[in-house]
Amino acid sequence: MVPLAEAWRSGANSWTTAQRQSFANDLTRPQLIAVTDNVNQSKGDQDPATWLPSRTAYRCTYVRAWVQVKYYYKLKIDSAEKTALNSVLSGC
User: Fold this and answer.
1) What is the Cα–Cα distance from 35 to 33, expressed in whole angstroms?
2) Nearby residues of 5 by Cβ (< 8 Å), 6 or more positions away
3) What pTM was computed for the model?
4) What are 21-80's pLDDT values in tens digits?
5) What's the number of domains the chain is made of?
6) Long-range contacts of 70-78 (CB under 8 A, 24+ apart)
7) How far apart are CA 47 and CA 85, in angstroms?
8) Is 92 buried (19+), middle (13-18) or exposed (0-12) by CB count in 10 A?
9) Which range marks the domain in which residue 44 is found?
């Protein structure tokens, strides 16, 4: 869900190795989701300010999960990201 590079920019750079491994392998939150290689390549390390799922019906689910992961791991949300999240969530 939250790419490793995005997590790093959002605060994971101060984590221990164990914390980073826990994040990367977390199956209990919506952190790891099986997607096609095309979707994964399209998303890259972008946050919702620059990438959202093409299926508009899935965007609310995606953004809620994004917020849940960021909150749980105490990762920062930048202003553009926050604007995009609020924009999607206001239509849910």
Assistant:
1) 6
2) 45
3) 0.84
4) 999 888 887 655 554 556 455 566 789 999 898 888 889 999 999 999 999 999 999 999
5) 1
6) 70/2, 70/10, 72/29, 73/2, 73/7, 73/11, 73/12, 73/23, 74/11, 75/2, 75/7, 75/10, 75/11, 75/12, 76/10, 76/11, 77/10, 78/10, 78/47, 78/49
7) 10
8) exposed
9) 4-89
